[in-house]
What does this fold into?
Amino acid sequence: MASVVNYYRVGAEVDLGTPGASSSEQITLTIDGAAITVAKGTSIMRAAAIAGTNIPKLCASEDLEPFGSCRLCLVEIEGRNGYPASCTTQVEAGMQVQTQTDHLAKLRRNVMELYISDHPLDCLTCPANGNCELQDMAGVVGLRDVRYGYDGANHLDAPKDETALYFTFDPGKCIVCSRCVRACEEQQGTFALTIDGRGFDSKIAASQNEDFLGSECVSCGACVKACPTATLSEKSIIKLGQPDKATVTTCAYCGVGCSFRAEMQGDQLVRMVPNRDGHANHGHACVKGRFAFGYATHKDRITAPLIRDSIHDEWRPASWEEAITFAATRLKALQQKYGRKSIGGITSSRCTNEEVFVVQKFIRTAVGNNNVDTCARVCHSPTGYGLKTTLGESAGTQTFDSVMMADAIIIIGANPTDAHPVFASQMKRRLRQGASLIIADPRAIDLVDSPHTRADYHLQLRPGTNVALINALAHTIIDEGLEHKQFISDRCETQPFKVWKAFISEQRNSPEALEEVTGVAAAEVRAAARVYANARNGAIYYGLGVTEHSQGSTMVMGIANLAMVTGNLGREGVGVNPLRGQNNVQGSCDMGSFPHELPGYRHLSDTAARALFEEEWQVELDSEPGYRIPNMFDAAIDGEFKGLYIQGEDIAQSDPDTQHVYAALSAMECVIVQDLFLNETAKFAHVFLPGSSFLEKDGTFTNAERRISPVRMVMQPKSGMSEWEITCALSTAMGYAMSYEHPRQIMEEIARLTPTFQGVSYEKLDALGSIQWPCNDQSPNGTPFMHVGEFVRGKGYFAPTPYVATDERSNSRYPLLLTTGRILSQYNVGAQTRRTENLKYHAEDQLEIHPDDAELRGIVDGSWVGIKSRAGETVLRACVTDRVQPGVIYTTFHHPESGANVVTTDNSDWATNCPEYKVTAVQAYPVSHPSQWQEMFQRFNREQQQLLAAGREKDPARERFDKIK
Amino acid sequence: MTENVQHWINIASRIATALMDKPGVLLPVLHGIQDELGYIPAQVIPAVAKVLNLSRAEVHGVVSFYHLFRTEPRGKKIIYICRAESCQAMGGRKLELHVKERLGIGYHETTTDGEISLEPVYCVGNCACSPAIMVDEHVHSRVTPAVFDQMLDEMIDEEARATFVGSTKSATTRVFVPSDSTARSLGADRVAAAVVALDATLNLDIELVRTGSRGLYGLEPLLEIETERGRVGFSNVDSETVKRLFSQGIPTIDHRECLGLMEEHPWLKQPRLTCARLGVIDPLSVDDYRAHEGFAGLEAALQLSPQAIVSTIADSGLRGRGGAAFPAGIKWQTVLDAGSEQKYVICNADEGDSGTFIDRMIMEGDPFMLIEGMTIAALAVGATQAYIYIRAEYPQAIKTMEKALDIAYITNHIGKDILGSGRDFDIEIRKAAGAYICGEETSMLESLEGKRGQVRFRPPLPAIEGLFGQPTLVNNLVSLASVPDILVKGADYYRQIGTGKSRGTLTVQLAGNIKHGGLVEVPFGISLREILEDFGGGSASGRPIKAVQAGGPLGAYIPVSEFDTPLDYESFKEIDSMLGHGGIVAFDDTTDLGEMARFAMEFCSIESCGKCTPCRIGSVRGVEVIDRIRAGENPHENRILLQDLCDTMIDGSLCALGGMAPFPVLSVMRKFPDEL
It folds into this structure.
């Protein structure tokens, strides 16, 4: 057991009332006689708060633009008539402000009296009791009497709306401060809330004054956080009461890496509140991070180790010692029988840096080979390869905040509002300020056309033609002389640029020549290229729609080329920004999860690097790269690969060509799964090691902007063991002793071994909140923008990017192209989100199909559709929509029984083997039964659930299973 | 989805798509839909939101904010009853009760046969002939219960309504009949029709000219005939009178019914500057306008630098005529000095104050003057786009303004390369939708941006950060209408008229219980008593005038003892009152001023945007407290509470609505202590 230390100072968030000002000009004024100096543009309210005076307020919040409606914050200013609101009045030099006079006191009390004349007096039974700004302000102004009485017109009987899954709306308690409406607009950018009616009849309304559940609300929770009363309350607060302590930690969903305050009662998590000081999210959140944490205490959690000899045996509960010994013995036996290289491990992009680090260390030391890979293999491995090749570092170049300086934004193959919602909100804020938007996507994502966001160009290309499109864009820039000549000559290698320029100038790369291939009109491509090239700052954001292709790495390089040729690198507002799928994709890659790379992206053939590790670890490292995940599968089927230790990844659901994965797993003799639930992969396992949720961990995650953020244990691991401890125990049992007292020591080791992490420590994380690597002597506080002045590789490298069509082309047998993606409420394979109320938002995966294709096939909305590719066949429910173009169908993969990956093929990126999830040639047809695979899946699933239940029945310490229910 | 709903959605999408390229166009789109469908069905909102790149919530919020947007089907006809003070002064409350009883419905309801919907309205600009009702777009004057009953019968018999007859071809004798909506409400259309009919049968060779109104509403319908000596008038004409007058050919000044030369009429002993052309010219004739000095100001301005124009306005001493009386020159200078590519000029024609109708009169009677004034303003401050925000309760003013704009474009007085000057300037009319608060300039900006008319805090001033965040010159209609004359006659000329810091003329609108209601344009400085007695001729009821309310619904009630106060901004401030937009509403001694004080709070509660607490909740509590005082409940404590509430609203409200709504209440408490 690690000692549980709360490293972090926890206090309530201070709200200074209005956003800070960025001006460098300083203004000095006096407030209540005391001089204070603040930045020009600061409100009197904020200046007073900085000086330690809290002017009463209700409608003001640091998270929102000033509004000036509550009239509690009025002040007196020498030489001015009336009583200006301190939230909306900016400081001026020499201003003399009084925040407290007899007249102000009376005025505030009288305003509060009006509020309370239309407010229920049920404070003691109110969910906000103890955390209500109205209550606080009534106290502050000294309200003692409501002379109007309580029988005047009021809203006390307004009906409650409890339809939203995680919060309730009680208009009877509303003070119409509009903080919720403003939060929805300014922070979230959805504009789902408004005020219905006017005057005394003003009432907060969702969409067209309807239930929250059916409205445009996306349940980000911004309105709930903004609400100063109990009008918008988390259901968990209503049920449990107010929390009594809070710990700042980092969300474990998606690559945005939002900072949260986990608010607790004892070891009970009451709610997650986005942290205003979070550098990635600035106090904002999405429905997943904010609300969908119930999986951590779901009844499906397995908290005791389980073992079995064969996957058709019942699971046997075991002690930790027993399970570790069982696993180690089996793995050693396999190595003895089939050779050193017959086993390996997979690290998880959901686990902490420290946990990942120890797994790869375990493989390289105790196992003694390099058979370690990570789930980034199937998502962002081309990013690593492409950016390393062109720019010199396998990471995005910017901070998220950089988008606020971008004038033209290109989004390629990403769906930020669904997959990176908190960053999407920031991007939308910039778009509302007037930045241009170009979207390259086969499907109309929300950003193409949603309130106050409309793409200037939606380049609706055919799946699989990314490289053709990026070449056409680059061709236009060269053809029209829009390249940034100075940047190219100063910052990039000359000869490769010449070669590339000659290549890209070829007529075959012109938008006109490629129109037939991409399906995008040449004029549109040219216009979009001009917008990007002519913008003061152009920024490119991309996702798995770029990487998960047979030319994924080529496309990443094409994107880097486009940024270089226009000089859009090395400063704020520009850059190449991969939006990472899972919370720690960046970190798991940084931590040396690849079979050919040590931590910090140092190739195994780098003898100096290898020597460093050998010295530290006191072991000789194998210099030969190990298996990538697909190689592991192939080798397993060939009988050469027999044992696999899988840390928190569900390859049986997430990897392509499911039947191939099943075959590989079935062929192995020892599969060890470390996870929260009996996931699809665990159904093929022999050892189940119960993992812990992010709430039970200490460590760090690294988000898409290279930001290392602290993850803090807010409750003890349910299984009794931290995940890094499990790996260490396994390693020790295998013969290589590993022991740490705390993850901080693992980070110290990482810092010792990795130049880009050299300056990272838990102490510094405490001090700074988070750190963007590289963090070393050159940039001790981290690096927001990379490649400033010079590329990491020295000069930028233009790699030629010839377009090669994928083998997955539609033909008469498979006339449609299937592409896949995610939606807002579910996360990845859904293991977490399906075990929360979010299930109600998205209870099944559906197949989006264009009305023309549907009509041709007799498919109607809501009916069952069979989809067949050369890999397999599955059945989904149809959603007929023109979001997809004719010839293209789309689905999500959040539910295992959907079998989206039964259909996807073994095609992959030429450089990294990242699967080509995004293009599968298929046929679709109406059906009335599930597919054969689905029937098999149901049978197998039933069997495995029975084997789990039977094992549990026999467990003498069965309460261990049930203790967290 | 029913076929019907799909049809509505198609219509809504078509309307929205046609307008989508204009910024902030939601209100015009919603008006367009309501004009076609009669209301705005909830089912069309998603389509509107989609086309305009808005959320459903935003569109819904806007629809629900404006009183004139309907979300339910309406009756075939809508009867709007004016509830404002001027109409109350003439028995409006009795009429209200009668109409409800007669129709068997309340406000916002429709008769069971689907024929008639009933809506309250707060002023239709017919205050000189109160009480008023409006049936669809037609105003009716001096509507007693008996008149209403008769109207209702006529309404069933559509034939009885006279249709509008416009100006006719040129001929030997020019006959003038106003087309102003108050004149029409008194029968001017029937007079015009009778003249045309008579001309046809008797071959009198008459050219009928439809003019605006001179504002002598006591004499309307007024018929004027051009003679060698000048224009002679005949008052209170109806179709019978027309037959009688013209039975012996064209009547002359010697006709026994003739008022004589109009320019010598005692009521017109006014130094009319701004209103000189009202009732004189054909509002839609550029020739007529030019013949009366029209566009001379614009031509002068085109020769001047922007700074020279602004300086002229500053030197003239012109102050904003909307009520706040802010020096126009300073505002113009601020916009001129604001650095921005895009600037706007906005004419605030949301004349919502009870007792005021000069904006309406100018739009109906001399629209080119406004266009000219706005164009000069745009040249001065460097704007290329302007909006005229007109209240929807003025349908005829909107129509006349629209036609005038079309003509101004055709004749190149606005548009591209104005009069060959190389300057471009566009004006667009935006129709409001029933929100008094949108007369407040920041809330009007919100409305023009297609939003709920919620007040913005200041600073930033609209002159620096106004419409769509750009520097914006927002002026009242009369302010802008005063501009051409200043450019023609010079700053000094204008400056020498008036008194103290109030320079130029004030367009007083006499309304309520007054014998001769109408327009009196006088230099600042004349006393209230002179206006009421010399022009107004005392009360309409013949009973003593007990009080007047000046400056609209937020103005104080002024007792007889203060009637000698001179009409200028500063003097009125001294008596805790204000001139506002120049409306004066008289009340006779039967008026219950306690009830009027209550109405001030009620009006505030009806028209509050709801943003700030003192106004949103305070106005409702104000009504309740006054009710308690009037019912004799703890009168002493409740008077203290009411005083506290008024202070809180005055000191705490975000804008002038909440900040001034207590003024009438306090004036009654202080100056008529027995009534509250």
